[in-house]
Design a protein that fits this description.
Blueprint (H helix, E strand, L loop, with lengths): L1 H18 L8 E10 L2 E9 L3 E11 L3 E11 L3 E11 L2 H10 L3
Antiparallel strand pairs: 1-2, 2-3, 3-4, 4-5
Length: about 100
């Protein structure tokens, strides 16, 4: 079950992020997910510093392949606000988790 493997990975990463949280610190990584259908999971991840931040909303649709839609928004004191959208098709859960790791999730 590919979806269950993804959920296990995300839960482990959420635990790591929460363990690194320091009370009073407004910076750092964030990660959450929501199951929005039998074959779809929405993942939100990003990071914040005092001068910059990025928010990524990813919709993952499981089918014969894994379709990923990624919407990125953020801000930078140097570049201002930015938005972007990308679409990917991955072959299996191994490729998906590798992609998430490359993304910093």
């Amino acid at each position: 079950m590919e979806i269950l493997e993804l959920i296990e990975y995300l839960d482990a990463r959420i635990n790591e992020i929460e363990a690194s949280y320091r009370p009073g610190d407004e910076t750092g990584d964030s990660l959450s997910y929501e199951i929005i259908g039998n074959f779809t999971i929405a993942v939100n991840y990003g990071w914040t510093s005092y001068e910059e931040g990025q928010d990524n909303n990813v919709t993952i649709l499981f089918g014969s392949n894994i379709t990923v839609t990624k919407e990125t928004s953020g801000y930078s004191v140097y570049e201002g606000e930015y938005n972007d959208q990308e679409n990917f098709v991955l072959n299996n859960i191994t490729e998906l988790i590798s992609w998430l790791r490359e993304e910093g999730v």
